Amino acid sequence: MQFFYGTVIALLTVAFIVLFSLTGWCGGDIPVLPVSSILKITENGNSVKVDLGILMEAMQIASSYHVDRKSLDKDKMVGGMIRGFLMYINDAQRKSLLVAAKNCPYKPTDCKDQLIFRVVADDGFVLRVDAGYFLWTLKLAVREGLLKKKRNGPGLAECLAMGFVRSLDRHSDFLDPEEAKDYIKSFELGNTVSVRSLGDKSNKVYIVYIVEFARNTAREFKKLTKELSREKNARVIFDLRDNPGGLDIPTEEILGYLVGANKVLLSEKDYSGVEVFKRTPIDSGAGIANKWKIVCLVDNGTASNAEVFSACLRDNLGAKLIGTTTYGKGVGGTLYDLRSGRGSCRITYTRWYTPCGKCIQDVGLLPDIEVGDELGQMNRAIQELLK
């Protein structure tokens, strides 16, 4: 049902943009409106105040920290604002708005420079977005009397911010204060690591299953691998299938424990475009896994920091990846709170590369040995370690 609802919204957004691009305006010129936190629109005897405050805060965060801030698609941003508005109104109102748009068409020349967002980032970078299409959508809705009644659920201000942030890339999102709290709590998972062994002393294989890299995962890992840490030539399978990633710090701590101090974890580029080599913590010690024989089990559900973990073990310790190509989430996101306290933006702020310099985003990690069957993956990993 959610997929259907999202599809309808997307199609309607496209329909509006196409109408804006191909048709002509009837009903007079749109006055130039200054962008402030409150935008007052009066049409056909109806007057509505639209709160742009949250949207503008979200734009300021994106212009300051998004990894692609200098090349973001401005049309997608405006489309995101329109999508956010369409999320706010109900199905019947969306249909009414579409009919009104057909009956009262619009020319691109009528909207140019009518509503311009000029947002200055923390470091002085300026993001300029001509949002005339968005303004016309709002004016048409006011004219049709679609904003007279308040509705349940997220307010218009929140929906506009949500639509904008989601337009930036598929990983960025807007969260209201309660959703932000829940998001932070989601990393408080326990029991994220389990360890078992197969075979006797001469052919023992350890299987370490990591569900997610949560806040306490590194502590759990060290506790549960005490016996394993005393094995100099251990055979180890790290099962990272369906591991969605998680937090950077526990991932880095575990990798430092395994590969040793000051080893390259990955390279990353943020919004500045400068490549930085990220290394394991300098207090990590010599590394307990330098003589281990290692296999990482991966699949399409292996994402984000789980991909970083697998790539680091392959490039630093020669681990083999067995399974299927990983998800391909080679970007880091972080939560930025709005200064007003009205929500938070989860923004993609950096792009990751393996220690050997290979891109992860949208590509994933190719396995050294491809095996599609889940049971077959484990059997092949054991065979590989017992060679």
Structure description:
The chain is α/β, with parallel strands linked by helices and 387 residues long. The protein has two domains: 2-168, no CATH class; 193-385, 2-enoyl-CoA Hydratase, Chain A, domain 1 (Alpha-Beta Complex), CATH 3.90.226. It is 39% helix and 21% strand. The chain contains 13 helices and 15 strands. Helix 9 packs parallel to helix 11 (248-259) and helix 11 packs parallel to helix 12 (305-317). Residues 1-5 and 14-35 have low confidence and may be disordered.
Question: In summary, what is this structure?
Answer:
The chain is 39% helix and 21% strand.
Strand and helix map with partners:
Blueprint: H1 2-22, E1 38-43, E2 46-51, H2 53-65, H3 74-88, H4 91-103, H5 108-111, E3 116-120, E4 126-130, H6 132-143, H7 156-168, E5 173-175, H8 177-185, E6 193-198, E7 205-210, H9 217-224, H10 226-229, E8 235-239, H11 248-259, E9 264-270, E10 275-279, E11 293-298, H12 305-317, E12 320-323, E13 331-337, E14 344-353, E15 369-370, H13 374-385
Parallel strand pairs: 7-8, 8-11, 11-12, 12-15
Antiparallel strand pairs: 1-2, 3-4, 5-14, 6-7, 9-10, 9-14, 13-14
Supply database-style keywords.
387 residues; alpha/beta; 2-enoyl-CoA Hydratase, Chain A, domain 1; 2 domains; six-stranded mixed sheet; five-stranded antiparallel sheet; 13 helices; 39% helix
Helix and strand element order: HEEHHHHEEHHEHEEHHEHEEEHEEEEH
Write the CATH homologous superfamily of the largest domain.
Answer: 2-enoyl-CoA Hydratase, Chain A, domain 1
**What is the CATH C-level name of the largest domain?**
Alpha Beta
> What is the fold named in CATH at topology level of the largest domain?
2-enoyl-CoA Hydratase, Chain A, domain 1
From the spread of the alpha carbons, the general shape counts as elongated
How many domains in all?
2
DSSP E strands, number: 15
Rg result:
26 Å
Query: Runs with pLDDT <50, length 5+?
Result: 1-5, 14-35
Total count of helical runs of at least 4 residues: 13
For the report, how would you describe the main beta sheet? 6 strands, mixed
Cα(first) to Cα(last) distance is: 49 Å
Task: Report the portion of residues in β strands.
Answer: 15-25%
Average pLDDT, all residues: 88
Return the CATH architecture of the largest domain: Alpha-Beta Complex
Structural class: alpha/beta
Strand order of the largest sheet: 6-7-8-11-12-15
Helix content: 25-40%
